[in-house]
Amino acid sequence: MRIGFIGLGNMGGPMAANLLKAGFDLSVFDLSTKAVEAAAALGARSVGSPAEIARDDVEAIITMLPAAAHVKQVYLGDDGLLASVQPGVLLIDSSTIDPLNAREVSAVAHAKGNPMLDAPVSGGTAGAAAGTLTFMVGGEQADFDRARPVLAAMGKNIVHCGGAGNGQVAKVANNLLLGISMIGVAEAMSLGVKLGMDAEVLAGIINTSSGRCWSSEVNNPLTGAPAARGYSGGFGTDLMLKDLGLASEAARQVRQPVLLGALAQQLFQTFSNQGNGQLDFSAIVKLYQQD
Amino acid sequence: MRIGFIGLGNMGGPMAANLLKAGFDLSVFDLSTKAVEAAAALGARSVGSPAEIARDDVEAIITMLPAAAHVKQVYLGDDGLLASVQPGVLLIDSSTIDPLNAREVSAVAHAKGNPMLDAPVSGGTAGAAAGTLTFMVGGEQADFDRARPVLAAMGKNIVHCGGAGNGQVAKVANNLLLGISMIGVAEAMSLGVKLGMDAEVLAGIINTSSGRCWSSEVNNPLTGAPAARGYSGGFGTDLMLKDLGLASEAARQVRQPVLLGALAQQLFQTFSNQGNGQLDFSAIVKLYQQD
Amino acid sequence: MRIGFIGLGNMGGPMAANLLKAGFDLSVFDLSTKAVEAAAALGARSVGSPAEIARDDVEAIITMLPAAAHVKQVYLGDDGLLASVQPGVLLIDSSTIDPLNAREVSAVAHAKGNPMLDAPVSGGTAGAAAGTLTFMVGGEQADFDRARPVLAAMGKNIVHCGGAGNGQVAKVANNLLLGISMIGVAEAMSLGVKLGMDAEVLAGIINTSSGRCWSSEVNNPLTGAPAARGYSGGFGTDLMLKDLGLASEAARQVRQPVLLGALAQQLFQTFSNQGNGQLDFSAIVKLYQQD
Amino acid sequence: MRIGFIGLGNMGGPMAANLLKAGFDLSVFDLSTKAVEAAAALGARSVGSPAEIARDDVEAIITMLPAAAHVKQVYLGDDGLLASVQPGVLLIDSSTIDPLNAREVSAVAHAKGNPMLDAPVSGGTAGAAAGTLTFMVGGEQADFDRARPVLAAMGKNIVHCGGAGNGQVAKVANNLLLGISMIGVAEAMSLGVKLGMDAEVLAGIINTSSGRCWSSEVNNPLTGAPAARGYSGGFGTDLMLKDLGLASEAARQVRQPVLLGALAQQLFQTFSNQGNGQLDFSAIVKLYQQD
Fold this sequence. Notes:
4 copies of one chain form a homotetramer. By secondary structure, chain A is of the alpha/beta class. Chain A folds into 2 domains: 2-163, NAD(P)-binding Rossmann-like Domain (Rossmann fold, 3-Layer(aba) Sandwich), CATH 3.40.50; 168-288, N-(1-d-carboxylethyl)-l-norvaline Dehydrogenase, domain 2 (Orthogonal Bundle), CATH 1.10.1040. In chain A, 52% of the residues lie in helices and 12% in strands. Chain A contains 14 helices and 9 strands. In chain A, strands 3-2-1-4-5-6 form a 6-stranded parallel β-sheet, sandwiched between helices. A 3-stranded mixed β-sheet of chain A has the order 7-8-9. In chain A, strand 1, helix 1 and strand 2 form a beta-alpha-beta unit. The model of chain A has no long low-confidence stretch (mean pLDDT 96). Chains in contact: A-B, A-C, A-D, B-C, B-D, C-D. At the A-B interface, helix 9, helix 10, helix 11, helix 13 and helix 14 of A face helix 9, helix 10, helix 11, helix 13 and helix 14 of B.
């Protein structure tokens, strides 16, 4: 099966590598020559533009791009995918963008005769390399079924979230909650320690009580793995900041209040501006330890 | 073993009943004649004042009172426990109050020769009735060991949290996080649904992802048990509001910022003022559904 | 002097009328036939499209549109102003949009040889009708000088704020502060009254103290003119909500935290969702009086 | 007229000096020998305890103490004022404390036959030295009239705010708004500058627009006098933090939401913890300039 792949960055690169490893025939495009050469070394065919991939004889095209502006340009631009792609080719956008833009692109694609799925991922660069990503997929059931074997080569948890855009909705809603609960853990742990408790004891109690959450159990800002390694690696503060920006913008568009979410976004912005954008997002606890 | 028990309210009443059921000999006091009669009907001995319990030949005294003011009056008042109690009698305060007041009372008790534990509970009236409460206990190890068989008659999870006041610290920190994460779930679920997702599908995805928490899994504001029964019963909004008040006040005293926590407190206050103080605290999602 | 005017809504309509009254020769366009007819009745010439105005022999073109998307379409669209306008024609956009989009359009205009000013207004529909608007103008000094007589026919306070986009910056910054201080007044007045003070007495004290602000003096949510008339008319909640959305989005783009601003936005959204979007924004005090 | 004065700190010291200068006969008490000696050097009579002042032949007693705990001890303690003072002596508490504690002390005083006023001040140490303080006074009109000549020796703006506690209500409400609007100005100015505007130009526009407030006009965090002197002196961050703590606690007691106020308190706490507690509170703008 021949697949086009556009966007060979930190996430897209290892995802493409896993597709090649699984035996898919890949045509790839990226603005970075280096990224393209790396994929070519693993057996991918390099082409000169998104449009050229579209004109290529592919059954599906996967895009993995930084933001909605890039997605709209690659799909809807004058020399974009939809201007050239054959009807029936399955389009899969794994970029993380806001749901409304995702639905807008999907509607144009469907109007041109191309099924389209939004399929953002979680799991980070480690999950991309290991092929253990989670895909949250929005689109029609038949298209989801068709995409599943392709996605399964890159991830191990492939979830159908409903119609077009719902993959983005699921990701944005989950990460909104994740950002809030991480700060909640940072506040609760900081307060407990300031009041005299041992961090490990407190984490143990919370994790068997009603405060327990992924951020207290797996990624605890004081007692977890990121803290132990100085908050390097992991899910970066600036990535969380981006996702909270998508959440609050989507909320604004549908007139849905997100009070804690908006405040969480501003706190990650404050923390990022202090020079911490590259640290694991659990490092936000430092904002609470500045005395 | 003879035990004194002061405070036979919604929590204290069933706790005392479980002690009687377990064979303890109980002297009880409460301002409500009705509550005292109910305990007497189960075999408790009714006495006329806290001081009378203190003068009674008890080995331990348990208090379960609404707020710090009552605790200070019962222990430190002119006619209070510490004015009359024999040295060596173990004092256990299961009220939920702020850690600094708990430590102040504990220090006076120790100075008078009485070991004291702060032992606030979680589990609600249902847990109190079933004898399945969690006790978060602050105080010395030897005193904790001595109290354990007594507490075990009322709860099934008895956790030592460190020195005096740490039981209160653990509870206040856990419930601070709980209040924040519940609102986080309310925002994430409301946003997802407003953006077109099915609530059950979204809850399912969050609960297998990094947003998962007790509030999304066990007490989900849209898909959980409290929602299914119209938010009656459960852990009331006004109880959460009280605990967030304790958390923010404790934070103020030790100069610890709690930004999301302070906002969560104000949101529960806003919601309570709309007439919802008695609803399960997951009903806060209604604040996000007013259009 | 012949002027083109695009956008004859609640604001643009009376602004165009004042230009006609001042003797300017006007070519107008709006999608609403009714709005165009009203202007024509006052002496304006109706044309069929923005492009037609551009091709007309005008010295300046003023646009007054709802949002950035409309501004970009009218100026940059395939059949937009910049595709047809003669070099040298002065472009004045009085829409309220975010500064970065304003600068993007301005840069394209300058590249085409057209000076451009962003000139958002304050003063509302009453100011538009009375010709007493404030214009906050971004762009070059020479262009500002050229525009001043035109703007002076519609407003009485014409302020040069610096280079391109700075008119929008000034408006967005002022209204960010305005939204925050109005909620601040609502909270202070509500708290004072709940604690037993007379609202008029409290307003009097604040207005001679360090809490004084436009929102406490001119538009006090409890004692001001909008309150006296049931919050009808005035500067609507949904307009404030729009401006806070522009502010938080501009802040996100330049990575500037706006913590109170983001929360204020969410509070106006919450209040608007309760059915109050058309009320004067000082009605936000009702959110604090729901018990 | 003989007056007792208790509390000769940064505020009380110069206030007592102004009373002496105006010809009042003063008996003073403070725990600091140095402070007492300074007052004695100006003609005050030093006494050994609050009770001794109470037993002295004074017509009025003024207290200026750090917090409610001190006020309650000095008035209600076993050896406190109310245990010894002659009926009819006018009691004036100029401390800044929460309204409910003020009312509690006032009620006890009245029950003992002593009229009492709460009379917190604004104007800072500079106003105390210059005798230009503002007094916000709660209590009965007749008592207010009796106190006025005394207060006029220390301040120039003496405002009657209504019944007992209302002086504290007025102060707490004003300073709640002040804290919020200062952060609002900090956010608006920071955003405007980050978006490319000159701070002076922006301040000029805001100060003639609807965003104008005392914090933008008199104490602007970027262009005001405190900024020009490196934020030394002025109204300290920790004083604002204390007043916001009083406001949020009073709000909690009467179940009044203060969403922006609670967040403002947390932001000043965060900023104070970074080592800035002694800076003028307009320095909070630094929290927004950490990139």
